[in-house]
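Exercise: predict the fold of this chain.
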Amino acid sequence: MMVVFEVFLRPAQDADKLFTEATLKETNAVVMTLPEAEKLIQGVKADSKGREQRFVTVAKRDAPWIQRALETSPMVSGFSMHDVD
């Protein structure tokens, strides 16, 4: 089972610095833009408020690690988490 995080970034943030290289390596998380996510994940949509967003896929076992990173990141204005089979 996978988890998809829909992440909303604060203005003028470098999305490439959302996670450390160590976090990405340990969790095998994949960070995608909307066009990339549309190719792989059914039902993703652009944010109705026009905020910059990223989609992060990760195995369910590593979701708490990613969630903690998002909760403590000053780059993130909000996020939602979705379980995917």
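Check your answer against the key: Strands lie at 2-9, 30-32, 53-59, 76-84.
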